[in-house]
Amino acid sequence: MQTLEVGILGATGMVGQHFIKFLQGHPWFKLTWLGASDRSAGKVYRDAMTWHLAGGLPDSVADLMVEDSKPGNAPKLLFSAMDAAVATDIERAFAQAGHVVVSNSRNHRMEQDVPLLVPEINPDHLKLVPGQQRARGWKGQIVTNPNCSTIVLTMGLGPLKQFGITRIVTTTMQAISGAGYPGVPSMDIVGNVIPFIGGEEEKMQQETQKILGEFQGDHIEPLAAKVSAHCNRVPVVDGHTVTVSVEFSSKPTESDVRHAFDVFTALPQQRGLPSAPPRPVIYLEEANRPQPRKDADRDRGMAACVGRLRACPVLDYKFVALGHNTVRGAAGAAVLNAELMRSEGMLDR
Amino acid sequence: MQTLEVGILGATGMVGQHFIKFLQGHPWFKLTWLGASDRSAGKVYRDAMTWHLAGGLPDSVADLMVEDSKPGNAPKLLFSAMDAAVATDIERAFAQAGHVVVSNSRNHRMEQDVPLLVPEINPDHLKLVPGQQRARGWKGQIVTNPNCSTIVLTMGLGPLKQFGITRIVTTTMQAISGAGYPGVPSMDIVGNVIPFIGGEEEKMQQETQKILGEFQGDHIEPLAAKVSAHCNRVPVVDGHTVTVSVEFSSKPTESDVRHAFDVFTALPQQRGLPSAPPRPVIYLEEANRPQPRKDADRDRGMAACVGRLRACPVLDYKFVALGHNTVRGAAGAAVLNAELMRSEGMLDR
Amino acid sequence: MQTLEVGILGATGMVGQHFIKFLQGHPWFKLTWLGASDRSAGKVYRDAMTWHLAGGLPDSVADLMVEDSKPGNAPKLLFSAMDAAVATDIERAFAQAGHVVVSNSRNHRMEQDVPLLVPEINPDHLKLVPGQQRARGWKGQIVTNPNCSTIVLTMGLGPLKQFGITRIVTTTMQAISGAGYPGVPSMDIVGNVIPFIGGEEEKMQQETQKILGEFQGDHIEPLAAKVSAHCNRVPVVDGHTVTVSVEFSSKPTESDVRHAFDVFTALPQQRGLPSAPPRPVIYLEEANRPQPRKDADRDRGMAACVGRLRACPVLDYKFVALGHNTVRGAAGAAVLNAELMRSEGMLDR
Amino acid sequence: MQTLEVGILGATGMVGQHFIKFLQGHPWFKLTWLGASDRSAGKVYRDAMTWHLAGGLPDSVADLMVEDSKPGNAPKLLFSAMDAAVATDIERAFAQAGHVVVSNSRNHRMEQDVPLLVPEINPDHLKLVPGQQRARGWKGQIVTNPNCSTIVLTMGLGPLKQFGITRIVTTTMQAISGAGYPGVPSMDIVGNVIPFIGGEEEKMQQETQKILGEFQGDHIEPLAAKVSAHCNRVPVVDGHTVTVSVEFSSKPTESDVRHAFDVFTALPQQRGLPSAPPRPVIYLEEANRPQPRKDADRDRGMAACVGRLRACPVLDYKFVALGHNTVRGAAGAAVLNAELMRSEGMLDR
Fold first, then answer.
1. Hey, are the CB atoms on C192 and D291 less than 8 Å from each other?
2. Structural domain span for residue D223
3. Are C122 and C195 in a shared domain?
4. Model pTM score
5. pLDDT at D349 exceeding the cut of 60
């Protein structure tokens, strides 16, 4: 398949750096354009930011010039890593100008005509796009991925959607990399737990309902499940761990649930999308897994891991889910979204 | 009040060391006797163990001789910090011989005639003791405190018992000190979460029902609430943090629940027991509290802290609770139990 | 002794909070005045800052009004916890106006006529004060304590000064609390080491020479020892650990050096100053001590610990030293300085 | 080049697991044989151990049968990951039987006729082998790699050997993975520093002199430099950081030293050995690098990083060095040794 040039909006921040790292060596997408704020525009990338990720700044990107975040010479496909404070207007301007904006920012996620996409769970939500373009008069489009903790939860629940999810109680133990840079002060988290992440519980509750919801012509009818999230920050670098208690309308047996995990596969796997993990959800047998430091990196950070399936005395079953928050929960999520869109022909002229 | 000599069974282990530290300067109890396994007996304490706690080994204890764990010259009141592997027989032998065994070990907690005591929650469960003595032919007695994570949960729920608790979903984030020494290998927990602690979920589920249950002459009728626990280890030194979703039969308003936290006080406070915190449960107003490293030590580690009370979309309310696992959850719990028993006259001839 | 009212300049920052915590229950000093920037002045303290320290904000301070950092109604004795960016002018203005400024800020430490005081090491450096007052036309005065890592090093070296120190190579492993709040981003230090702290090595090298130097009428003749420091940040909350290789001109035996540690005592101990630890330097026998989490708190954080004395193949001896950086290395250091000054009659009319 | 079958002695321990991970996909060596203790022999590998490394047990190894650690059907080239308690006799038995034992164990490192090899530093030390075979009557041979902290130090010093190293003072901050599994108890290291690692300082001091020494026909004449090491454990997962002060006889300028780092390359690079990093020592420009979590993984963990070169007030220069302790400092070191040996024709008949 022909290589497509791509750009990043918000390239100098932490999420932007994750996009740069994840796109290294991508077989379909070649990173040629970096957008950032006025402060950075006009500098070469290596001078425009401090690189925070392990392994060093890739040479191929170090000398790219940083551009203003304005449509113009940017490639058609843009990944947005912008701060919520500025993403709304800039993403819309690019979509208006004909760009395909595949965004990790939260700004458009809950808008009625914008897909909140997890390719293994709700690929059909891309059907919102034509209506979005009509209603907004855009040649381009905006497609979003969920919040990092929501992705982990929905990946874990995806195989179980068939059983009719009615209630979910979840507690997260989220990695510090989810808060960006400088993010969480070390005095707040070394040897500590912070039982609060601003806005996170609301995002998990709403986004989960939308992702597991049904496409209804011009909007997504959210899943009518009740969702309760307790969000916590823990001193882990990468990988969000979530505990899940879940209730089903169809009352599956434990082995039905386990089987659902074991056989789960989806469109990205069937189409062999480059960033799709061989198995989107891996059930780990060991009693004490998944664990973020040991399991978040599996399949380049794109697989979610689950484990500890057992009966829940209050709802029906409980289990643990884990995913890499900056890969599967951010940069990798958006790239996989773009791969799905390309495989649907949505990135062609 | 006259000072009472006390001893510790299992004095060389981590929990034993916590007892030694907590009893320093105690106004009622003077530590004069240390029991341990054959391997340690006959040595002075400083040579019988490696001291693991911050602040150094108290001088007053360093030169005490370690004794065999056999009744004989031990004082009447004994705190048990023994491993579960050996506690059953030894605790019974001491109770048989007329000792009051106030135990932190799990072995007798769920026995029908043994109080599982949290002085602020179920002081009346001490009424089991006469029946215990009759049935077992003991002059002495065994009284236990709950598992460290159970105490945190039940302290948080104690003020709310009045509303008729019917369902609880809880997730713990437990400190490494709860696993003793050497305990959790650092390779398993530095920068990591372990979503499993053997036997812990079952303990939390059962012990909570017993503690919140009702004394019925010769046994405790457990609370008929359903309890589901998800137990996790996190890289925190001291302090177990738990998230709680709870359902009530009486459907209190949020301000009813908040008021119940604010006004909660109990027998240990009314009697001014030496280790009783001024307020057993402290509601913290800040959005991101309680936190283990900042709040576990309040009131010498004897107060539980709660916070973040809010509506739960699945059950009725949710909140966060925190307690110091080796103080309120172990050594301090047992000492407060003994103080309550003394104030009831149970330690007199 | 009559209680003296004291104030804090820079009361809302982290160091200011450490002063507040350390002064709780002080037998000589009663905290009655809090100064801060315009932004905070006019608010009660609890509304003027976010409290970051473990254990909660002391009630006695919570409702004090924060004042402008201008002389006027402030008490004579002021502890300065101000940022270096503003400390120079404000400290001078207060000294000019007759206040005794006992400062933890770095601004005046290396000025020729300002004592850089460690009461156990160089109490005679207070003799600089009369000259300072004459030269600057001040009724008040400024006295400083060293950088937190310098204090640990000099406390460890103090007992050995008698042997004629000629060369020192030291590596620090410094706690995150030394960087204040928000201080070090967690993404930079969780599971990591940062082998650089801006300006720290220069401070350690110069301050050590001044502290170990000799009073010469109107200045301190710095110790002619060569000092080389390697400063590192490690994921420890409180307590700076330093490795030290040291060369002596008098070539003491190892047992001479050990004996010097064992018998070391100084003026603060002889005078029984309230914050003086019973022994300023504690030699720990265990092969793997001192350790910050286990030893930094000894004697309320005011004792330095040393250990692992052994021959150095390059210089003469090597050992490990440890001290609590925010107590002995900051707030407690300044309070002990003020206690020494009071015992010298320098705080009287 | 033809693929060579290889085995691992001590395959079930942590170091053995690192060998398995590092050898995955190796272009020259195919892992076909796993040796372990009697307890494990006869089981398939997945049942014989608990896998502790991130990323999961490679499928290609999971079903290999574990063999007794006795010569017989083992391949000629064996990597030894055995505990020091058993390595001496077993390694000798295999060497006697004609095997090439490339060992990470410490047992034979300091023997006069055994190369202690760092391929970039002292490849000519392999010339010891013929004498070793003659003297011991072996058809096989034993070649060792240094201790993990020694490798980091010597990689940093290798480019500077030309200047005549005369004195070294070094302090290590070592990762927990260096202690194996279960290794360091979390209660000893979370939020803490342990300023002692048994035997480590002696190893660093002696091994460094041997590695930097000269081949003299039948032995290595150790470098006559004085070396002083202070070894510490810090809460880092992977990557040993060392501070180094060094004195040279030839008194190079700072730019001479910097140039030496920048141009350093060696035999493994010239021969393109598969595990050789492009540049063995990478000088990082940023003021606060290298850092273990961000830099230890560079070039698959095989490159050492240095930084912060500056004048030392006591010796001549000081700098920071870093390397991945389980890769460059253990499994990768041994594999690179074997690659060098193969390129020398030492693995052929």
1. yes
2. 148-325
3. no
4. 0.97
5. no
